[in-house]
Amino acid sequence: MKELTVKQLEDYLALKYKDTGITESLFMKLVEEIGEVAEVLNQIQGRKKKPLDNSLANELVDVIHYTFAIAALNNIDLEKAIIEKDKDGSRRYNQPPNLSEFLSDNLA
């Protein structure tokens, strides 16, 4: 199977939601999915006795889906934003290497 890139996911979701995607409704879905992640984590940790109906992986994929859809509809390049945000955090918290350095080191 071909690997998925950030850009491909952004382009796919921009196409998927171009006519129907309203950022506010996607945000509400994102919040709902974050709640479902919390539910699964509570079940995994034994704080909720309800049987697991959804896997953590599925719920995290839903969070990523709606996050990327919101970014795509707002013309945000998440790959660039993630790398820049990580550089700032690595510098601020003195946690080398940053993501850009990691990628450079691991592409060689």
List the keywords.
108 residues; mainly alpha; 70% helix
Your description of this structure?
By secondary structure, the chain is an all-alpha fold. It has 5 helices and no strands. The longest helix has 22 residues. The chain is globular, with a radius of gyration of 17 Å. The two termini are 23 Å apart.
In short, what is this structure?
This protein is mainly α and 108 residues long. 70% of the residues lie in helices and 0% in strands. The radius of gyration is 17 Å and the shape is globular.
Sheet having the most strands = none
- Please state the CA-atom Rg, rounded to the nearest Å: 17 Å
Total of DSSP H or I helical runs spanning 4+ residues: 5
Coarse structural class:
mainly alpha
Mean pLDDT: 91
Q: Pick out the low-confidence regions.
A: none
Compute the separation of the termini in Å. Answer: 23 Å
Estimate what percentage of residues fall within beta strands: under 5%
Number of strands: 0
